[in-house]
Amino acid sequence: MKMRIYSLIAKEFPFFLVMPALIWQVLFFYVPLLWIVYLSITHVGAPFFNFTLAHYTGLFEAAFFKIIARSLFLAFVNAVICLLIAYPIAYFAARSPRNWRNFFLFLLILPFWTSFVVHVYAWFYVLDTNGLINSTLLKIGLIKEPLAMVNTLFAVFLVMIYCYLPFMVMPLYSALEKFNWTLLEASMDLGATPAKTFFKITVPMTLPSIKTGFFLVFVPSFGEFVIPALLGGSKKMYVGSLIYHYFLVARDAVTGAAFTCLSSLILVAACLIIAWGFRKIFAGSGGVAQ
Fold first, then answer.
1. What CATH number does the domain containing 233 carry?
2. Packed helices 62-94 and 98-109: angle between N→C axes, nearest 10 degrees
3. pLDDT (tens digit, 9 = 90+) per residue, 177-196?
């Protein structure tokens, strides 16, 4: 009997190791998510399960959809630029000698050791009128007066790219490190140009990692509010900024919950459209793009 119990415990031991992570995810992701959905469809102060859609009626205005569209544009452009920058970085790191790969990986992970807010605040000393960039340009004589870079869309995009670039590089590096480079040699031997080899072999073979990195950047960028608030000067409202305003400033939890659900549904729809776009673009590539 004891041997059977020990055998069962040994067999299910991996499940018990996963349990703390599963409990954490349920308590701090699914429960708050369900509570947000519940708040958005119930009457304030009413008994439980008194459902209504009245909180959503005031959200179907052009101003709210303009904010969502602005956030989608910000997230999409940020993800595309990160992809264009990250692919050469990951490619170069993956083709470097193994000792150098570890060093490049260390440099990539290093920013995660400090606070995200500290990263954003550090850019004030770079982009400010008396910051590093303006001081350098003034000293070498390229400009005669400081450039206004803080509280601009340029500053928001620049810091967004800086903060989210590692999330794009990591999955690409993971795929390229395991890539079979003899396929490139075979393609060259068969007469393919380097560009054709890249777009017909390398890109399709790494498409799953491209999609993973794209969504790892796109989804959190959609709800980003720290960078637009600190470096954008709060001149324009984004999805994360408006949710922050409803919950922590206006103390209007039900409207904030309704807007959160509405924007999340639009985000899911946008992700499905982008995933469909990936399949259409690479449908005839001949690779293993799934």
1. 1.10.3720.10
2. 150
3. 888 888 888 888 888 888 88
